[in-house]
């Protein structure tokens, strides 16, 4: 399995390492792999050949078919996305958190919401925040690497998942969390900066860390503002609270966007409805100028 990429090299962990040889190999790839446009990513299962055990080198010859692929961060074969956001420092920003959640939901993989730095809020504020995200359809995992809160629970969850991906804004403590979960790991953790206490993009590349036998977690570089998903007709399935509502009371119109359609059965009294609305409007707005342009081109 490819566990890290370094410049032009792939770090590959062997499934059955020889007793007297290295368990990880630094690999180049056969040029024909590049020609076919088959890029190799972290999480890929690959076949290696031309193994040089003395220097722990080899060549990647084939990439196995994938069960999933995330574009950003680029990870193959993940089955769960952990969206990590801080309860504070950087400040909890519902719009930003939702953008991460929508992007994660769009993959169709299991999505877990992890609230980090829980030591920074008192119990009341914390339970308010928990209720708030429960209203969005998420049962959050509350953690703190400072107090140790939730680490056992998260460890138990992750041990069941072959590859999970930890993503979220810069500075929320993703690398610190993995250090807390995996004794012996010493990932670089960065200070926050500025009035908004943003992260400084400390982690620069994607890397998989073995967690328990057969289960790995990817640390990824934080980024701050994911794009909204671009398919307006599928937006409703990306909101778990809307999904639940529609499962119980399906809207009677096919292709309804649940905006101002008379007779639409979707209620408006849920917290993220305005966000849903804005997302729909924004996406329709984005598509309109393109249509206008192509109309003009035709004239
Ligand atoms: N109060 C508090 N601070 C934390 C906790 N975990 C991490 N931090 C601090 O948050 C800052 C950022 O931590 P990182 O682990 O580098 O954050 P990151 O999400 O990996 O950031 P990028 O790699 O830039 O995406 C550091 O100053 C940590 O000391 C926590 O549980 N509580
Ligand atoms: Mg990091
Ligand atoms: Zn409707």
Structure, described:
This protein is an alpha/beta fold. The protein folds into three domains: 2-63, OB fold (Dihydrolipoamide Acetyltransferase, E2P) (Beta Barrel); 69-219, P-loop containing nucleotide triphosphate hydrolases (Rossmann fold); 232-298, no CATH class. It contains seven helices and 13 strands. The strands form three sheets. Strands 10-9-8-11-13-12 form a six-stranded mixed beta sheet, sandwiched between helices. A five-stranded mixed beta sheet has the order 1-2-3-5-4. A two-stranded antiparallel sheet has the order 6-7. The termini are far apart. It binds guanosine-5'-triphosphate, magnesium ion (MG) and zinc ion. Residues 174-175, 202-203, 219 line the site of magnesium ion.
Overview in brief:
With 299 residues, this protein is α/β, with parallel strands linked by helices. It has helices at 31-35, 94-106, 123-135, 151-158, 174-181, 240-248, 273-298, and strands at 2-6, 9-13, 24-29, 46-52, 57-63, 69-70, 75-76, 80-86, 110-116, 141-142, 163-167, 207-212, 215-219.
Determine the N-to-C terminus distance: 54 Å
Give the second-level CATH assignment, the architecture of the largest domain. Answer: 3-Layer(aba) Sandwich
Biggest sheet: strands side by side, in what order? Answer: 10-9-8-11-13-12
Structural class: alpha/beta
Strand segment tally? 13
**Named CATH topology of the largest domain:** Rossmann fold
Largest sheet: 6 strands, mixed
Secondary structure layout plus pairing:
Blueprint lengths: L1 E5 L2 E5 L10 E6 L1 H5 L10 E7 L4 E7 L5 E2 L4 E2 L3 E7 L7 H13 L3 E7 L6 H13 L5 E2 L8 H8 L4 E5 L6 H8 L25 E6 L2 E5 L20 H9 L24 H26 L1
Parallel strand pairs: 3-5, 8-9, 8-11, 9-10, 11-13
Antiparallel strand pairs: 1-2, 2-3, 4-5, 6-7, 12-13
The site of magnesium ion (MG) has 5 residues, from helix 5.
């Amino acid at each position: 399995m490819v566990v890290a990429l370094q410049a032009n090299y792939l770090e590959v962990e062997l499934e059955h390492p020889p007793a007297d040889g290295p368990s990880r190999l630094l690999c180049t790839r056969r040029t024909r792999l590049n020609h076919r446009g088959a890029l190799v990513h972290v999480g890929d299962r690959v076949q290696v050949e031309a193994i040089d055990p003395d220097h722990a080198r080899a060549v990647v010859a084939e990439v196995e078919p994938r069960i999933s692929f995330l574009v950003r961060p680029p990870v193959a074969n993940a089955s769960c996305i952990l969206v990590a956001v801080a309860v504070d420092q950087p400040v909890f920003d519902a719009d930003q958190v939702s953008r991460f959640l929508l992007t994660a939901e769009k993959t169709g993989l299991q999505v877990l919401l992890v609230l980090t730095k829980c030591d920074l809020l008192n119990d009341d504020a914390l339970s308010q925040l928990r209720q708030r995200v429960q209203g969005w359809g998420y049962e959050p995992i509350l953690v703190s690497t400072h107090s140790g809160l939730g680490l056992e629970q998260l460890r138990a969850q992750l041990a069941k998942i072959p590859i999970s991906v930890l993503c979220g804004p810069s500075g929320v403590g993703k690398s610190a969390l993995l250090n807390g979960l995996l004794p012996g790991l010493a990932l670089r953790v960065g200070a926050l900066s500025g009035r908004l206490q943003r992260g400084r993009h400390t982690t620069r590349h994607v890397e998989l860390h073995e967690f328990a036998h057969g289960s790995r977690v990817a640390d990824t570089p934080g980024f701050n503002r994911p794009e909204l998903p671009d398919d307006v007709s599928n937006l409703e399935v990306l909101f778990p609270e809307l999904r639940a509502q529609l499962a119980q009371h399906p809207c009677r119109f096919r292709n309804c966007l649940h905006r101002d359609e008379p007779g639409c059965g979707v209620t408006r009294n849920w917290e993220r409805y305005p966000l849903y609305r804005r997302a729909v409007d924004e996406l329709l707005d984005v598509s309109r100028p393109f249509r206008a342009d192509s109309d003009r081109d035709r004239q």
